[in-house]
Amino acid sequence: MPNIVNGVVEFKENAYPSKKDLYEKLATGQSPEALFITCSDSRISPNLITQTDPGEIFVCRNAGNIVPPYSDTANGMSASVEYASAVLQVPHIVICGHSDCGAMKGAMYPEGLSTLPHVAEWVSYSNPAVETVNKTAGDADDATRINMLIEQNVLLQMENLKTHPSVGNRHQAGEVIIHGWVYDIRTGDVAAYDEETGKFLPVEERYADEIATLTQCKTACQT
Predict the structure, then answer these.
(1) Over the chain, what HEC string results?
(2) Does pLDDT of 112 surpass 70?
(3) Segment 92-114 mean pLDDT
(4) Which of 21, 53, 72, 101 is catalytic?
(5) 164 among known catalytic residues
(6) Which of 43, 53, 142, 189 is flagged as catalytic?
(7) Is 142 a catalytic residue?
């Protein structure tokens, strides 16, 4: 705990004062640009990866960045998705998987979860993705199969999102865009799913037009 507590002190004494105006504005409400759904893995830092300030992304985390299909039974994930979409009206939703995901290893090899019944039940939501990998991986080695599953799981959760009325209705109306990402812990690279090619492309390639537009806007504001 010493490092964590010391971090709080550092935040209060240094980080907070440097953005005091932002925090005072956020004290009365939020209007995030995206709902960012990712894994609980301690190696993943959504705001660090996206270089965003507090208030810019609404973050939901769980083992395996899973979104269970919609049901009448309330759960924390469904409630958060509903709030972000129906109340905050986020225009974007990102499902972000990551390399070396323990949850995906558990989904692929459930025999290792025999003493973790709740984990086993939770990651079973990824079974359709596991089945896809098993059908297409052939004689691929374990590492390749896990990497395939990480991507397939992101695609599965993107589809599961659409079963939630608060998202599905807005998605059909073009009011919210669903994105699929995979973050590589070792390299810092992010790959984003491209529907036209059916592949995960480097984020700078997938969003080249958006990045160019933002760069132009920043240049214009400086002149």
Answers:
(1) CHHHHHHHHHHHHHHHHHCHHHHHHHCCCCCCCEEEEEECCCCCCHHHHHCCCCCCEEEEEECCCCCCCCCCCCCHHHHHHHHHHHHCCCCEEEEEEECCCHHHHHHHCHHHHCCCHHHHHHHHHHHHHHHHHHHHCCCCCHHHHHHHHHHHHHHHHHHHHHCCHHHHHHHHCCCCEEEEEEECCCCCCEEEEECCCCEEEEHHHHCHHHHHHHHHHHHHHHC
(2) yes
(3) 97
(4) 101
(5) no
(6) 43
(7) no
Please identify which of the residues 98, 170, 179, 206 carries the catalytic annotation.
98
Show the domains of the chain with their CATH numbers: 30-188 (3.40.1050.10)
**pLDDT surpasses 90 at 3:** yes
Model confidence at 195, pLDDT cuts 50, 70, 90, reads: very high
Kindly indicate the confidence band of residue 214, based on its pLDDT and cuts at 50, 70 and 90. Answer: confident
Q: What percent of the chain has pLDDT over 70?
A: 99
> Of the listed 41, 60, 96, 171, which one is catalytic?
41
pTM for the predicted model, two decimal places? 0.94
